[in-house]
Each structure stands twice: as structure tokens, then as C-alpha cells.
């Protein structure tokens, strides 16, 4: 395969962690390939990202235009459709940018779209066999992807080991003129940082985290009491914030906070990758879930199959008695 | 504003314990519902129409069983439902579905098309593909929409919960993230009111589409070999609580 490309996310002159994971994925899925890195942006921060990329990729295509300073998928898509050769295989991170860019890019390239790959084996001929997850990780699936007209493949963060060998003394090819004259019907205005709350769960050592399994707003009091008895802070999964039962700054996950506690008690949380993506530092993770097959038990240190509405009050009681 | 919302009937992952048997999902006791993200999309469409005027149409690609999700969304307040159904649509991949939906969009005069950000397969693909086929601008993971003259100001929720604000021209396709609103409750009375409304059904011939053969195919479902996994505790509720207290103490989980 001589037509494998990796789109590099970068910010502030540094490559995103996904960049070397894409390289690692390329080594697994397309072993013979020398993936070409695609880096778009503007000015010194793009130059720095390209320098860093050249240590790992044999070839880096640089697209420097002021309008590309912010990675707007509505500009990147026509750019990539313009410069990529027919049959190209494009690797993207399955990030909010990849989700924005990828599906439409596959249409514009006439290529197949294979999203959120978590595993796979070396492509055989024009077929790639990969593993995906469905139902928030409750079921895994083998899928095949026909590569004959190219493919856009997005890769889950953390699924493939980063290739950090830095074994290339790559060359940077300035393709900026190819990115001239891009105009989008969606124009970036500004970035609004997430609101800060009255609590900073990222600094807490002991967290009690509640998920959709709590069932009802009234039941939140049960986990508040448990957290109180433990001297822990209360946090949650996304559906609890969506339902407005707790505030956004308490949400753990890829679209919430990244926490690094010593102990994490997950109550009625299924263990989606978006939730687990916000838990770092390998805490002592206790999971309580009524479904013995819940994916959270794969990530937990200790598991309890139980109805949290029964177990939580009993646990609160036992802790109070033990004091 | 004329708004089309694409919805999907899915096994309800919150209601079911999804189990795999012989390469397939165990299907006998699956409970189905509307894809979680789609309810937010329909609610958003209804709220936009309440502010700006116009109407909301809900559409799905599926068989007769998918009618129930259209009726549910109509009970929420969507004005029309549209079922796209043909044996030729079965087994379509994301691109196939987007092709069928694009044909339905072209038959109407829509200013805005909404989809859920993703559905049960976590692919998050149909909205972006639909926009590309129509050659309309697109934004994914939208968590705020404000009409401003001939365009929209939209927010996309990105990593860490930050919001990327953009202006987008109409017509456009937006995929909606959960939490953008609080979807209204649908009672039995509401469902009964729309139970007998005629739902137009369009097949491949009526739409003038033939989805291309799927290039991405699911071979089977499987259970990944269990990793180390958790140490599972057993016992009565009181015993479990006692064991947890000891463990939490030992690991510094009690302050
Ligand atoms: C772009 C994007 C970003 C996202 N970002 C995040 C994020 O930052 N954080 C996040 O959490 N999610 C995020 N999500 C959502 C994520 O995909 C899942 O939908 C979510 O994490 C599920 O939350 P949950 O585990 O609480 O709910 P569910 O998946 O519904 O799980 C509920 C669990 O509770 C169990 N249960 C039910 N009743 C009981 C009971 N009585 N006792 C014990 N157990 C019970 C069930 O068995 C089930 O396992 C994101 C999704 C997308 C698309």
C-alpha cells in the first residue's frame, strides 16, 4: 500500500496524542505502507508540528493558510478531497474533529467509511477486517471494509499503541499553494471554554460517580449521602448532566472532566469509552452494576453485581457505623 | 423554517442487557425505542419551529415496525412522518442510508435537516454523509442553535466540554448531541392522538434511488475474550457492604 495517509491533529505547536497512534494503527493495519502525514494550520505552530511529525513520518505534507489556523472540518474536507489521490486510505482520530470531517470526506472521495475502529488485522488484498463496538461497548463486532475505492478510517483513542520509535528522518513537503482559495459555508467564530463549577473534581482523590442506573432524580440524594459518609466528592456520567440532575463540571469523560483519583466508585455506569476516557492514573476502581456483562467490569479492580438502590444505603450505613 | 429530522428505531441499550449468541444479538427479549440522540434532535426542531414558524417532518428508513418511532416523535409534536421502506434498503450501510435519505430531502423543500449525533452502532456517520451527498454545509455534535436571519449560529461540543461556535449557511445538516435541550415527555394520550394518522411510505421506485452495495459489512457480533477483569464480590447486601468498607479503608477511599 503506497497510498496511506494520516491526518495529524495538533495545537499550540504540539502534535496531539492521536498522531502517533495513527502511525501505530497504520503499522498494524497496513504493515507495508509508509504513511504520509497531513498537517494543516498556520504559521509557527504548524511548522513546529510538522518538525515533530517528520521525526516519525517519512513524508509530511504541510498546508499553511491563515484560514486553516483553526481546524474547521468544512475547510479541511474540500482541501483533502482536492489533494488526495484516487484510492487513498485516510486515517483520522475518532475525535470530535474526525466525526465532523470523516463521513463527508468519504463521500467526496468516493471511498468507504469505517468509523471508530478499536482493533484489526493487516489488510489482505482489498479487504480490511476490523473490530468495532456497538451499544456503548456492550457488543463487539467484526466488520469488513472494501478498500478498492479507498477508505476513510477513524481510530478510537487509546485503541492502538502509539509508534513512538521516531525512526523517520522525514521530509516536509510544502503543499500550501494547494490549499489556496478555500471557503466554507460554516465559519468558525470562537471557542468557549467549559464552565467551571463550585467544585473541581479533577483535584479530588476519592470520587463517587453516578450513572444512568440511578434511575431517578430523587435517588441522587442516596449517592450524595454515600459521598458525604466517605468524605468523597460526587461526580457522574453524561446522561446525569443531560438530565440536569447534576451540573456539567461534575461530568467525567471525553466531553467532560479528566480525573486522576486514588479511588473511583462507579455506580450504575455501563463503562462507555467516552466515560472511561476521562479516568486517568489507574485508580482503585470499584464498579456496582446490576448487569454482570456491563463493560465497566472489564475496567474495574473490584466489581459488585447488585442493585445500587439497595447497596448504596447499606454501604452508607456500614461506613457510618464503622466510624 | 421547514425542518426534516432523521430518526432510527434501535434496541434500547439502557433497557436491555445486550447479549451475543452464535454471532448475533439475542433478539427475543429486546426492547426497542427511538435512538436517544434523535429525541434531542426532534425536540430541538420543535422548539425552532415554535420560535421561527414552519413545520417538522420526521423520517426514518426501516420496515413497518419503524412506524412506531415516527408516531412517537409525532406525539412529541412533529407535524408529519415519512417512512422510507423497501426490501432494497435492507442491509444498507451508512452510505446507503444517507443516499436514501438524500432522495427524500430532495423531494421536499427543507431549510434544515437534523440527525442524532450517532445511534446504536456508534458510527456517527449518516448526518455527515447526507450533507456531503446534498452538498450542504454540516456541523456535528451540535449543542446549541440560534437562528440569525438567513443563517444559524451553532455550537459544537468538543473535547473537555468546550464549545466551538460557528456560523453556518442554510440549508444545512446538523447532527445533534444529547443535552442540547430537555426532550418533552410523551404520554399515552399523545401517542393515541396520532395512532391513526396516515403515514406516507416511499419505496425505492418512488424515491428514484438504488443504494449501492454496502462496502462496510458486519460479519458477526462476538464477545471479546474477558481480560483480567474485576475481582467480583459476592454475598448478601450487608456482607457486600461490609467487604466494600474494608476494601475502601485499605485503599484510602474513606477520609
Ligand atoms: C461525542 C460524545 C461524547 C461523550 N462524552 C461523554 C462523557 O464525557 N462522559 C460520559 O459519561 N459519557 C459521554 N458520552 C456518552 C456515552 O457514550 C454513554 O452514553 C454514557 O457514558 C452512558 O452513561 P451511563 O453509563 O451512565 O449510562 P448507561 O450506558 O445507560 O448505563 C447505565 C448502567 O446502569 C446499570 N443499572 C441500571 N439500573 C441499575 C441499578 N438499579 N443498579 C445498578 N446498576 C444499574 C445498567 O446495567 C447500565 O450498565 C459521550 C458520547 C458522545 C457521542
The CATH architecture of chain B is 3-Layer(aba) Sandwich
What proportion strand of chain B?
Answer: 25-35%
Find the count of extended strands of chain B (DSSP E, 2+ residues): 15
Q: Return the domain count of chain A.
A: 2
Share of helical residues of chain A:
25-40%
Tell me the Rg of chain B in angstroms: 21 Å
Q: Which sequence of strands runs across the widest sheet of chain B?
A: 11-10-9-12-8-1-6-7-13
Report the radius of gyration of chain A as a whole number of Å: 22 Å
What CATH calls the topology of chain B is Rossmann fold
Bound molecules: flavin-adenine dinucleotide
**Count of helix runs of chain B:** 7
Descriptive report:
The complex is a heterodimer of chains A (323) and B (255). Chain A is 27% helix and 28% strand. Chain A has 323 residues and is α/β, with parallel strands linked by helices. Chain A has two domains: 176 residues, HUPs (Rossmann fold), CATH 3.40.50.620; 121 residues, Rossmann fold. A seven-stranded parallel beta sheet of chain A has the order 7-11-6-1-4-5-12, sandwiched between helices. Chain A has a five-stranded parallel beta sheet with strand order 15-14-16-17-18. A three-stranded antiparallel beta sheet of chain A has the order 8-9-10, with no helix packed on it. In chain A, α3 runs parallel beside α4 and α5 runs parallel beside α9. The relative contact order of chain A is 0.11. Chain B has a single domain, classed as HUPs (Rossmann fold, 3-Layer(aba) Sandwich), CATH 3.40.50.620. Helix content of chain B is 29%, strand content 29%. In chain B, the strands form three sheets. Chain B has a nine-stranded mixed beta sheet, with helices on both faces. In chain B, strands 2-5 form a two-stranded antiparallel sheet. In chain B, strands 3-4 form a two-stranded antiparallel sheet. In chain B, α3 crosses α4. The radius of gyration of chain B is 21 Å and the shape is globular. At the A-B interface, α3, α4, β7, β9 and β10 of A face α3, α4, β9, β10 and β11 of B. β13 of chain A pairs antiparallel with β11 of chain B. The complex binds flavin-adenine dinucleotide. Flavin-adenine dinucleotide sits at the interface of chains A and B.
